[in-house]
Design brief:
68% helix, mainly alpha, 6 helices, globular
């Protein structure tokens, strides 16, 4: 039995149950991992330009960046921290003009106070933007 046959054999209540379980699990995981990742951002991250040189690190970082970006988009429609998860995904991705886009994103959605609030709770320096 392949995945399509499995899904078509399910009734709507079972599908809804699976979607609810996945959504609740992703919500809890995002609540646990988002503050950790926010605290890992260096306080001067948005001031100095950094590029990754190691190709393995580049691949792994971009893989997780796309993952968090997609999960963040899902969180926009389900319970979760959508905008912050999208920001984490963007930070992990590596593309041209990324730093300019990140600054725009932070300022457009007024995320700096939220990021610094989380960092204060874990005794980390506030993020600065030039």
């Amino acid at each position: 039995m392949n995945i399509i046959e499995f899904i078509s054999s399910l009734d709507y209540t079972t599908i809804l149950l699976y979607i609810s379980i996945i959504s609740a699990t992703l919500f809890v995981v995002s609540l646990l991992i988002t503050p950790f990742l926010i605290c890992k951002i260096p306080y001067d991250y948005f001031i100095k330009e950094k590029r990754r040189k190691n190709p393995i690190l580049f691949f792994v970082s971009n893989f997780f960046g796309v993952f968090f970006l997609l999960i963040g988009i899902v969180f926009l429609f389900t319970p979760g921290q959508g905008i912050l998860t999208i920001l984490i995904g963007i930070i992990l991705l590596d593309f041209p003009k990324k730093q300019k886009f990140e600054r725009y994103f932070i300022q457009k959605f007024n995320l700096l106070p939220a990021l610094n609030f989380v960092r204060k709770k874990f005794n980390k320096e506030e993020i600065v933007i030039d």
